[in-house]
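pinging the channel bc i need a second pair of eyes. not urgent but kinda urgent?? the chain im working w is below, pasted from the shared doc
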Amino acid sequence: MNPIIGITSRLPVIKTSGGDLEAHVVNRVYTDAVLRCGGTPIALPPVPADEAPRILDRIDGLVLSGGGDIDPSFYGGRLHDDMYAIDPQRDEFEFALVREAQKRRVPVLAICRGLQVLNVALGGTLIEDIPSEIGSTDHAVRGPEVVDCHQTVTIEPDCLVAEAIGSTEACVNSIHHQAVRDVAPGMRAAGWTSDGVIEVLDPEDHSWPLLAVQWHPEYLVVNDDEAALALFTALVSHARSKAGIG
């Protein structure tokens, strides 16, 4: 029996026989990565935030997936012209999942937007736009290149991500224009690119099996990237332990 891994979904418009309709979607690279590493994936569409405890009753691990930008009103930020796909309902649902997962020590893999959701949910803030504030354009790869690494992250040796991948350095794929500004209470920055952008968050209390990365390991799994596979394997392993599955 495999542990159940919930994956948060996004809300694109898709073409159907009834015309263009909004749909709750999880990119297949997430589900494939979870399956490959021994978990059973299920999609989590945004529902009212007070449903988060009941959802976490039914899953063993959680992937906070990538997607659009967080509504800046949630962290005292400012709107920027390059912000896109803001969805306050999704934000509030995922904030509730984070806070409840922290209470219960539910295993979590937070990816890109997921790391940002984690930070804001726990009281941190974000850089609204990296290129206009920091001047770096090295975090915005697009197209077929997303399955390849192009940027190096240096990682603190005593954090959970370094423990999971067995290294203090990772070659990653950056696909984001926002990043952590102020780190949330109870978290610490534990990985950076050369331009100083935070790429890893680590819980101060390691009894919470939380892996939070700003890059996209689900794409790197397509090319059998060892560090990316290790992150999903660690999530599934922690979820298996939580569920009491031998």
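so Residues 4-243 form a domain with the Rossmann fold fold (CATH 3.40.50.880). and DSSP finds eight helices and 13 strands in the chain. — does that match what u expected or am i reading it wrong
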